[in-house]
Design brief:
This is Phenol degradation protein meta. The protein is mainly beta. Helices cover about 10% and strands about 55% of the residues. α1 crosses α2 (about 140-155).
Length: about 350
Amino acid sequence: MKPNSFLQSALALGVGVALCTPVVATERGALRALNGAPGAEISSPQFPGLYGQFWLQRYEADRFTDGSGNTPRVALSTPAGTVQVRREGSIDATVFVMRGTWLTEQRVGEGKFGISAALPLVRLKQSLRLTGEFGAGIPAGVQATVQGQLDALARASSGSRSGAADLELMPYVDWQSDTDRLALGLGVVAPTGRFDASSAVNPGAGKFWTLRPLLVAARVWENGLEAGLRATYSINGRNRDTHNRSGQYLAADFGAHYALSEAYKLGLQGFVNWQTTADRCADPVLSLCGKVRVMGLGPSLSFTSEDGRLFMDAKVLKEFGARNRPEGLSVWLRANVRLDD
């Protein structure tokens, strides 16, 4: 058997099974979304003013999933027989989000007009393993040759990169009463982040825009219990660099909290990301295209200062039910500060 035949087969396989980036690259198995970012402030009253939010996320995953939630495997045909290639590895991400919100006195009906902007700064690290599962009839020398090529592909698709991700702008209208809150918005995500189509690891999602409708709904009760939901629906354009168009998806964050005192709240938070339409891939072999899904759930604890100008919270969210993306654990530390008088 000629070594080149193995190399060509492995390369065709390798780009298809090896590329997988976290959180910010939709067409490669993840979503352009900050899973679990909203917190107890969804159901807290927000008064007109200027707010600064500073959020830190640590995300780690040591499991990749396919469309059935299993470890991804791809069949590689060689002149000596079929080899199953298993894709494993780990993802590590640190995300620092700078977000500003201005809720104005300007009325739209009974609601107040506001606008927010969020820019994540991201450090990504990916370590990939491609392992061949060989049949009994494949000679040991052939196995070593193929595995060596897979190891080289895995190294080429591993690495780290840091930089700004993509900027979200979200105008919205906020209706609030003593017990209820409803907000509707229509935002965009701009392709401001660093993206290189030849790189397996990128802070930015790609050279495309996303249109993003927003719904926020919340209710509080006199007994100290409150619940809230923040949901967006992302409609993606075509990536100018890869000519792929990522599918549409729902990203919903929800939580229920109980006031332990005037300052502290204990809660349970979660999120759902669910891709509703298929990706449109210019070359399905060279792009990991498939419907993505992931959910997360975990506890949270929040603090509000006596004057209401400072809000802080911490939470841990465990992912489950992942499809066509990594599955891991995220930890959030967040501070929201009112900046004006």
